[in-house]
Amino acid sequence: MGLTRREFLQRSSGAIAIGGALGSGLWAWGDRAGQVLAAPTSRKLALLIGISQYPEAVSDIPPVKGGLLPGALTDVEMQRQVLQHRFGFQPADMVTLTDEQATWAGITEAFQAHLLEQAKPGDVVVVHISGLGSRVRSATDPEQLWDSIVPIDGGLPTSDRPLIADLTRATLEQLVRSLPTSQVVTLLDLGFSNLGTSLQGNLRIRARPNAPTGDLHPQDLALQESLGDRLRAAKATLSGPLPGLFLTAAASGQAALEGRWSGFSAGLLTYALTQYLWDATVGTALSTVLTQTSSSIKRLSGANQEPQANGTLSRDGTSAYPLVPAEAGADGVILVAPDSARTLRLWAGGLPPSALSAYSPGSLWETLGSAPQLLRVQGRDGLTLKVLPVIEGASVEPGQPVQERVRLLPRSVGLTIALDSSLDRIERVDATSAFTAAKVSLVNAGEQSADYLFGKRRAVETTVAAVSLSELPNPAVQTDVPPSQPVLEMPSSPASLDGKYGLFYPGCVPLGIELSTADEAVKTAVNRLTPQLRSLFAMKLLRLTVNASSSRLSVRAILEQMGPGSTTARPLPIVQQETVSIPNRLSSKRLGAAVESGASVPAGSTLRYRLQNAGDQPLYGMLMGLDNTGQAIALPLSTSTEQPPLLPGSSLALPAEPFPGWVVPNVPGLAEIFLIFSVAPFSQTLAGLPIAPGATPRQAIALSNPLDVAQSILQDLHDATSINSPSLGNFPSNFPGGSYALDVTRWATLHLMYRVEATA
């Protein structure tokens, strides 16, 4: 049996007796070391840690209303839900430590009592920590730095007490090495780079802003030494790859980030990984899990955050993920039994956060199983939905997996821009006046969710050479740092402000839109921006429709590079996305999980899209997005409203062959493209495009009315919901009139992003 939180707190009231209970656990592990580690799994254990309420004396960051990192607690809940309901972990075998429970002693005692003393060879162990990380500078040798995890009581050094009471990464790694099983997943959703600030754009950085200088606390050094002695006595390795999979949120020199959406916050790594795991199925390759996670982080925020994979499993990207999910994918699960009002709580962790942010009451979900039941959404609290069965008296049980069926989106959606902390008071006043006149809502960076960021552009963009997840399945695995050696700090060029104003994704990645010239006033710059705001508004609307995880259509989109950047005769795949469909609703073999290569595209390359339909319904399609110059573009798969261009089991190129693809402009920037598929034609959208009926699309259309086009796309998807949907009852009277109703059996939206590198 796992220990309760109270038991852990009682046992953690003082420092651990290094040679006592911990030692017995390690010696027991040594006796079992010769057993076969590949034995069938008999148990699954998890230790989930999240810290939000850091005091300033620990974090070196002024207090923040609602907690410094509220997303750390969300992370713990996301992991707990997906482990229990997708991977079969028992609640009694999962221990969570949050805030005041997550002291240095509490963390190390929980690891020892719950994992070291209970795990056996072949068991699966998951360790998750969300909070602050840090670099610690040695007081005796300022050139040496150590990575550390900041517990709730990890006080900063003072003149009277020059000790740093953090849990060093070296100590954590020794604890992981001490486990008697190789089936281990360790996830650290925190960073070890001290970047001098707690914000990156509108996202919070999960690391101390500055590296404290001091001496490591004797308790950490003693535990590390004791673990090393016992590992050596058991003839186990103290260096080399860690057992299983060891994931960290960002590369050295990068920020590990926490995002904020409407009603909740979360770590980018944890949200991306757990969202994908809701849809993963048996046999999913590790490389697929990790590359999709890395790609999702970019789509969540445009952030320059590359998660890192270490450990024995990361050497072979084709290995199966160490966690084996349930047979069918899901978007969420029923949490509690109906009360007297017949209401239920539904966990919706499998949906993208952009969709949940605008989720409207009246949306429909569907239970999985032989007798599916429709559930109508009454409201939302973070990632939890309040739902009622559509049919009164329908049988719905806690733990039952569910999938999205109809997504209701409001027709009136606003655009919110965060003002970067780099702006001074006068700049903020002028920006507020100008954006308010353009009917844009403004918030201060780091305080509320926002669609984009307004601030000063950086003159120097820092790039870091790192081993990223997107390089799998043949990753150059980082060598684990022996615990006896400090980590050396990687120098980076500070990004100075060049005085020009710009628009950014929330993670401070610039848009391709040219906003201001040198010495231009804020109001003048923003006034020139007004036409581009309609393009950004259009992108937000399309982002609300992304449903690769819940669509029942089976489609794939591959961006191919045809130009001089390709070194082979065959097209080079750059970006790939696809839906995760329910296998028993497909007439062909289910496609593999969606992946992205993460490659940049050199300017001057020729690009085209390869689209595939693996389902049993003919489909219409539409491309819309922003290219790397910030220009809104659109291109239909066909101008016909009677002959679907993408037939079952077929594929086509966009633009259609033999026409050449698009030449990438020589402008650095991020391109954001949406590919929307539907069982019904895009009649209203086509009517608003400057293209003749019956014409064959050759090149993307530069849009002067992007918001109108995006609204037409949503209206066409709404109209498609009313066609042949008998299971939804009397449409459209069952749905609010002020909403778009989109049926996941009728549409799919794939979201692709790629970066363009300009040439001299």
From TrEMBL:
<protein>
    <submittedName>
        <fullName>Caspase family protein</fullName>
    </submittedName>
</protein>
<dbReference type="InterPro" id="IPR029030">
    <property type="entry name" value="Caspase-like_dom_sf"/>
</dbReference>
<dbReference type="InterPro" id="IPR006311">
    <property type="entry name" value="TAT_signal"/>
</dbReference>
<dbReference type="GO" id="GO:0005737">
    <property type="term" value="C:cytoplasm"/>
</dbReference>
<dbReference type="InterPro" id="IPR011600">
    <property type="entry name" value="Pept_C14_caspase"/>
</dbReference>
<feature type="region of interest" description="Disordered">
    <location>
        <begin position="297"/>
        <end position="317"/>
    </location>
</feature>
<dbReference type="InterPro" id="IPR011189">
    <property type="entry name" value="UCP_caspase_lke"/>
</dbReference>
<feature type="domain" description="Peptidase C14 caspase">
    <location>
        <begin position="43"/>
        <end position="315"/>
    </location>
</feature>
<dbReference type="Pfam" id="PF00656">
    <property type="entry name" value="Peptidase_C14"/>
</dbReference>
<dbReference type="GO" id="GO:0006508">
    <property type="term" value="P:proteolysis"/>
</dbReference>
<dbReference type="GO" id="GO:0004197">
    <property type="term" value="F:cysteine-type endopeptidase activity"/>
</dbReference>
<dbReference type="InterPro" id="IPR050452">
    <property type="entry name" value="Metacaspase"/>
</dbReference>
